[in-house]
Each structure stands twice: as C-alpha cells, then as structure tokens.
Write a structure and sequence with these properties.
This protein folds into 3 domains: 39 residues, no CATH class; 105 residues, Immunoglobulin-like (Sandwich); 289 residues, Glycosidases (TIM Barrel), CATH 3.20.20.80. By secondary structure, the protein is an alpha/beta fold. Helix 4 packs across helix 5, helix 6 packs across helix 7 and helix 10 packs parallel to helix 11. It is built from 11 helices and 21 strands. Helix content is 26%, strand content 24%. The two termini are 35 Å apart.
Length: 513
C-alpha cells in the first residue's frame, strides 16, 4: 500500500471537490494522481564541477589483505538493556538498518546455569523470560536472584534479534568464571567467582557444560552459534568482576583433548573456539603465538584467535602472524575506555583511529566493542548511555557511537581489505595524520578516511587502480553532522573528488564497473 501525502492549494481543492468529491466530501482515489514514492538512489544523477585538486586517494584492489567478518558489541551488561523501557529501540540502534548494523554478538555463558555441585545444567531457555522492563515481577527477580535476571536478559535480547529476523549475526559466548566447584584456590585465596584457577580434573564436565549451552541456544533460537570461549582474560584475576586463571598449555590441552572433541561429538563441528581473550592486546598476541608454535595440532581445532584492546598504545597493536599464516581469523573481542569518561567528539575520533589501527596494523578480521548500552559515571564503556544502570526509561547516543558506525554500517562482511595509496600535492596537501583504509566485496567498495587534523580540511581525487567507478556516495561525521549523506557524481571528464572536513570521519561507498 502506498502512503499518500497530498498537498493541494485551497482553490485547487475546491475545484477538485466540485468535480470529484465523494458523498463524504473526500477525494475519489480513482480521480487523484498518486505519484510513486521517491527512492533514494546511489546511482549517478548528474555532473559535478571539475575538481581543482590534484591530490589523490587511490584504491589498489589487487593488493589484498584480510577478510572482514564484521563488527559488534558485548552484552556483559545485558541487564541494562533488559531493564530499559526502550530496550527494543536500543537493540535497533545497535543492530538495525538505521543503527550501527552490528553483525557480531558477544554474550556470556553464566556459571549460574550449573548447579552448585556442577552435576546438572539449566540454561533457562524453556522458562518465561519475557518480563516487562519495569514490571513488578522483573524488579522482584532482580532483587532476589540477580544471576537469573542476567540470564533472562540475554535470552530476551537474542529472542528479540531473532524475531527481527536479523539472522546473519555471528553469536559467540565467553565465560567469566566456570562454576566455583570446578576451580582451585590457593592458600588464603577467597573462594568465589572473582578468584581462583581452573581445575583441569573437571575438563570433561566443563566441555560438556560449554557444549550443552551452545546446543541449547541453537535448538531454542535456531541461531548460528558461531563460537564458544571458555575464558575471559585468563591471565588475570583482578577482582571486582568474575574471573578465572588459566595456564597457556592448560588452555591448549583443554581445547584439543576435551572441548573440540565434545563439540564435534554433539554435532557442533562448525562452532569455533574463541581462543585467548587476554585483556592487553600485546599479551594476547604472545599467548596465541606461543600456543600455536608449541602445539601445531591446535591449528586443526577450528579456532578464532582473540584478544582485548585495553591500555593498548599504538606500538602494541600488532598482528598475530602465526594465526594468519595458518588461516586462523583474528578478532579483537573487547575494548572501551575503562579509566575515563569522555563523551565528546575528541573521544569519537580517538576510537575511529583505534578501529582503523586494529584493522590495518593488527589486521584483525573483526572488532567488537564492550558494552552496547549501560549507564556510565566514570568510564567510557558504552555506546548508548541509559539514564539508570538497572531500570531506566531513556538513553542517548554517545558520540563514539557515530564514529564507530562509520566502519560498522558500511564495511560489508566478506569484504577484503585492500591497500590504499595517497599522493599529496603542495597546493592541496593531504594531512599527514590521515588514516585511510579500503574494502572490496564483489563489485562494491568502501573507503574509510579518518582525518585527525584539527586545522586542515582537504579535497582529493578518488581513483581505483585498473577500474572505473560506477557510483559513489559519501557519509560524513564530525562534531556538527553525523552520517551525513552526499552523492559524489563525476565531472564531465570523469573525475570524482571528495571533501574531507577537518577532524572528521568520511566513509565512501559505491560500485565499480
């Protein structure tokens, strides 16, 4: 059905009324012309002025790098979403077409899904988790059993995404702590979720627990359980949140001898094992490299090599070379500002540069943010700020939401990152601190330009080596505009150029011939 918007002058309305009025004084649809709805097209629709710049940004499609798996966020604070009266809008802002278009979800395998003795498992998939955000029942559960409330929150989120038919999401799940009964504690160490080490004598039970979770969620929701991680930051037990220590060889042995065989036995051969997930990227690189070199057979365990991006200086954003050489994809599975809270465009630009570096220097296949939504008071952990941490009624988008969206909205899964060359002229110099990357999938391309210069905007010609552009659209975010769309038509001589404002992120998409 067409939506009709009719704007008619008073005199014309009277004239039409005399001719075509129905008994109820409305206009007859048989006699009123209804134009087809206007569709926004990416195709060229005219000519642009001849560019004056000679500076060039050139895509090199034959200089191929890594494949892109996607972008996403964590739901370690799933309760913050579940308890918001606008939780549907939150999920649309993160995963919807008009939002960030995330296609990776990182959830949690909660220790509370196992009984205290570790002998039975209940992943709550058959329970009624559809509680109203501010219902008395939800608030009572939150007060009496916060662990179950968290599990319900995750179930509701995944259920909502499935009902929205967003089925191309890669779901993977990590463990902050195994059930306490499967951990060992040193002298004087408090027995709890925030301390202790994994006790390998429970490896069989733990593998069955992780596999049981993946199987239960796949059967309940029909989702692609893309990966399982039996750990979160396994070289640290820092307190303040659940954790569990693992040894490097201990982790490798568990994967090869228990987890991979059990996943295969239960029919989950395609479910990958997310391997590593240490908090500091350089440590994660060393951990994964050591494990792969010491255990060549680990390559056959269907892994994703992973690390987190905390307290990471530029010099430590390194590739996992041994993983790359063995065809293992590399993901950065958690990052945020865990020390300061900054919601300005300065912060947004910092994260645009960070995402660029993980894609180009670490050559990651995916980048995953920490908290999609929650209330923060002293840290920058979220993309959406709720007005309360437990039961909220509203939220807003933090500026970094938009700069990260310059990557997640426009870089397609299955794209291949390719090299970019910039050639600057004195007359219209490209700033030295421009970060440029490009991605190609079939006959489509995406270019992301992060201009860190606070004083210099610039124009540049856009070229693709050995090919011609068929269409071109830019999307710009800075302190004034967000995802501002502009069509970049060719000039009469076929040249295309882009204006990159100072301190901005510009993403350019289109097709080539």
């Amino acid at each position: 059905m067409k939506k009709i918007y009719l704007f008619v002058s008073t005199s014309l309305f009277l004239l039409l009324g005399c001719i075509t009025a129905c008994d109820d004084n409305s206009l007859s649809h048989d006699d009123v012309y209804i134009p087809d709805p206007m569709v926004i097209s990416d195709e060229d629709d005219g000519l642009s002025p001849e560019p004056s710049t000679e500076s060039v940004i050139k895509i090199q499609p034959e200089s191929k790098q890594q494949e892109i798996d996607g972008f996403g966020c964590n739901f370690g604070w799933a309760e913050a979403v579940y308890g918001c009266t606008k939780r549907e809008q939150i999920m649309d802002d993160l995963y919807g077409e008009n939002g960030l278009r995330f296609n990776i979800y990182r959830g949690e395998v909660c220790a509370s899904s196992a009984s205290e003795d570790g002998k039975t498992f209940n992943f709550k998939t058959q329970e009624n988790y559809h509680l109203g955000a501010h219902s008395a029942e939800a608030k009572a559960l939150f007060s009496s059993n916060s662990d179950k409330f968290k599990e319900y929150a995750q179930l509701w989120i995944i259920d909502y995404l499935c009902k929205k038919k967003l089925m191309d999401i890669y779901y993977f799940f990590s463990v902050w702590t195994p059930p306490i009964v499967w951990k060992s504690f040193g002298p004087g160490e408090e027995k709890g979720g925030g301390s202790g080490s994994f006790d390998s004598k429970y490896s069989k039970e733990y593998a069955e627990f992780l596999t049981g979770f993946a199987k239960a969620f796949k059967e309940k929701f029909g989702i692609n359980v893309y990966g399982i991680s039996g750990w979160n930051e396994p070289d640290q037990s820092m307190g303040g949140w659940d954790g569990c220590m693992w040894g490097n060889q201990q982790m490798a042995d568990f994967v090869m001898e228990n987890l991979r065989p059990e996943l295969n036995r239960q029919g989950l051969q395609e479910t990958k094992i997310i391997y590593g997930e240490l908090p500091w990227w350089a440590n994660a690189v060393e951990w994964v490299e050591t494990a792969l070199k010491d255990n060549p057979e680990l390559v056959d365990a269907n892994l994703v090599a992973a690390g987190h991006g905390y307290s990471t200086v530029d010099a430590n954003i390194l590739p996992m070379k041994t993983a790359e050489e063995n065809g293992i994809h590399v993901w950065q599975t958690e990052t945020c500002d865990d020390k300061t809270r900054d919601e300005t465009w300065n912060d947004a630009m910092k994260w645009a540069k960070n995402y660029h570096d993980y894609l180009t220097k670490a050559r990651t296949n995916a980048v995953v943010w920490w908290a999609g939504a929650r209330q923060c008071s002293t840290t920058g952990e979220n993309l959406l700020q709720t007005d309360a941490w437990d039961f909220s009624t509203n939220y807003y988008r933090v500026d970094r939401y938009y700069s990260i969206g310059q990557f997640s909205r426009y870089i397609k899964r299955g794209s291949t990152r390719v090299d970019v060359e910039t050639v600057s002229t004195t007359a219209n110099r490209i700033p030295r601190d421009l970060s440029a990357s490009a991605y190609i999938k079939d006959d489509t391309y995406t270019i992301v330009l992060v201009n860190k210069s606070k004083s210099r905007a610039f124009d540049a010609l856009l070229e693709i080596e050995g090919k011609e552009f068929e269409s071109m659209v830019s999307y710009t975010s800075n302190s004034s505009v967000k995802w501002f769309r502009k069509k970049l038509n060719p000039s009469s001589t076929g040249k295309r150029s882009v204006n990159v404002p100072k301190y901005s992120v510009v993403t350019i998409t289109g097709r080539f011939k």
